[in-house]
Amino acid sequence: MARTVSTRRKTLTTIAAWTIGIVIFFPILWIIVLSFKTEGDAIKTPLEVLTSLWTFESYAVVQERSDYFKHFTNSVIIALGSTLLGVLVAVPAAWSMAFVPSPRTRGILMWMLSTKMLPAVGVLYPIYLLFIQLGILDSRIGLVVVLMLINLPIIVWMLYTYFREIPGEILEAARMDGATLRAELLYVLTPMAIPGIASTVLLNVILAWNEAFWTLNLTAAKAAPLTAFIASYSSPEGLFYAKLSAASVMAIAPILIMGWFSQKQLVRGLTFGAVK
Amino acid sequence: MKQIQLKQVSKCFGNVEVIPPLDLQIEEGEFVVFVGPSGCGKSTLLRLIAGLEDVTTGQVLINGEDATAIPPAKRGLAMVFQSYALYPHMSVRKNIAFPLRMAGLDKAEQARRVEEAASVLNLTDYLDRRPGQLSGGQRQRVAIGRAIVREPTAFLFDEPLSNLDAALRVGMRLEISELHKRLATTMIYVTHDQVEAMTMADKIVVLQAGMIEQVGSPLDLYHKPCNTFVAGFIGSPKMNLLAGKEAAKHDAHTIGIRPEHVAISSTAGEWEGVVGVSEHLGSDTFIHVTCPVFSEPLTVRASGELDLTYGAKVYLTPDLAHLHKFDDLGIRLK
Amino acid sequence: MATQHSRSAARMMMAPATILLLGWMLVPLTMTLYFSFKKYLPLRGGDLGWVGFDNYVRFVSSSSFWPAVATTLVIVGGVLIITVILGVLLALLLDQPIWGQGVVRILVIAPFFVMPTVSGLVWKNMFMDPVNGFFAHLWRAVGAEPIQWLSQASLPSLIMIISWQWLPFATLILLTAIQSLDSEQREAAEMDGAGPIGRFSFIILPHLARAITVVVLIQTIFLLSIFAEIFVTTAGAFGTKTLTYLIFQRVLESQNVGLGSAGGVYAIILANIVAIFLMRVVGKNLDR
Question: The complex's ipTM?
């Protein structure tokens, strides 16, 4: 790509791209602005909003009135817990499929993928009923398990595609060097796959953090993560734009930052390796 | 003493038999080279000995004991892979120490043996580098270091030099031979390069399509190839294999004569021919000569200075003492 | 490429993931099938016995079924058309040399990371509210009457919200695919005298075909089960009740589990039809 592009053309594409980028990003930008306003100012016309006073008030109120950090903690525990548990189960499975492929491997991988496509609503009542029977409705552990299960196929797939890039000879070398299976996984495969495992964790934390079917249907006050907490704003009383904005900003900020780091892996993970 | 023995070992992948049942004995301290064209099953054979593949039938004996069901980690063999298979996340020191760590040796002993191996292989200055920071030759030496520290029963080399450039390859060939002389440990070495086989081996095993064509010392194979395949495979440039009326004169279906055993003259000789392309190597000149009596051109070695122009008429005479005769199945005639 | 030892180890290591997923699939699926053949009203008498295919017939013949199917198709189709077309254009634009390309990329993909409940609520209140929303202010500023977005133009509004969430996904995947196009191929086309439009239709578009298929299939699977966006905006009112939402209402809101389960079985069958196509595409990739 050593050719120079005319500055005029580059200027035009730059202006177009930035305009579109800002339009797409605008809703997020706008709630960031609103979150620093008082409720009274937040419903004024956009111009008046921009020129009104900036304040941190809403952030304080959100925490004070609704114990925001409880829900934040729930989100962290559910997202991280389900992902780490999933990785723990998926690493050995992905190792098997990547390095000891059998005629059935392909079928098993496809079948795992198909479980991901099971529409949640189709099994809503059974899960709901099981949760009541087991006494884990509105509990963090219940959600950790469910989100682990719905993301397990993606985790296995992602790890599988990363593992396949590790030359099998290295694992064979470890075996020749006297490594047991445990040592092979622990000292050779895992350290080599750290970048892949990290991206898998990152993407799945994002997916679990934003999951909004099971979290809405299986939690109430106690274990509700941020998705469900924010949904409670759908029947608001009085003025709430600034508070909703503040709560939203806090809910999406951590994931937005993680998401920007995982752009590349996102493509690979969400397309099951079909697009790299 | 017979150290590694294969008894009626065979290997199938699915329905494809890549190695029909074969027997092989390897003596202690021997340098054995498996050589053959790619796809001949030589690497598979090595992996069967290593335990990285299961034999379909037969037995692998190591030191007289049946090792067929023993996993590779416990066979006491060390292997150097074609890609070197170094652990990219570990320093050279940790790479070399890895087998010792797996064997549960104490730290001091590990350090002592790593230092020792490093000094033998000239790696002392590189111990704290990562494999990614090393040249191809250095990586190769690390892979060898990792193999020698554990003092294995035997070393297995799977085409270790094929990723190196030509000049380095010659150097490493010598180093490995040296190492063998010094350690006096059995080495099994797989290559597709017959020059490597000839220069390094005590014993060469020539394989084709999973079958052993011939086992013998390099000079055995050179002087008495037992069939046309071995005759054509061993030696560089290739032996001229000639069939037809001229062969029948010697009571054979095919006759073979090496380029170095044909005399060339511009005045008189047994076969008349026309000079084709000449390859000048300085010490030798290889001349391709087309003779009307043979369907294929012959390669002939001439002394360095000889200058024969393209298209010149020449006469060739084979040295009958070095004429090889084969029957219609390609088997050597006594 | 393996031995007995590693094969049996492999089976052991596969077991936890396989058993978990098998349980996750079979147990609820069996229960859904079981309930779908029963009259089961947890709050009004509980299990009232077997009814055969009654629920299946009733679910399909209920007055809300066909509207729900239509709504589902409109939303899925609308979002797919918008995201794929805009996604291709945006990907082509972002592939050009731009000052600050990294930042623009970040701006464009950001909506994908916004949780569905947040984007639903933010659009509903801060933008589409007919009194205080951003659009209402904008419309008034030019002297127009603000639109009652979610009640009068409910489906277009929802399609807009969902497209905003999924456009980044389509763009990112298509951009990745464009960038994987061999630049020599493009240069060769240029040497052969192909103009920008020729290059797009003969080189870039065919190259993107596979990525577009993947985008369509994956989005379809996710879009068929869209839930939170509807839950927090219209709660199924104003003709925005999709199949998923209808089943949700039958099961949890009106607690008619038998009927809802029959609907669930339909949803599973529908999703599987799409899934078969997706798996074909993904499966091809495995053979390489």
Answer: 0.84
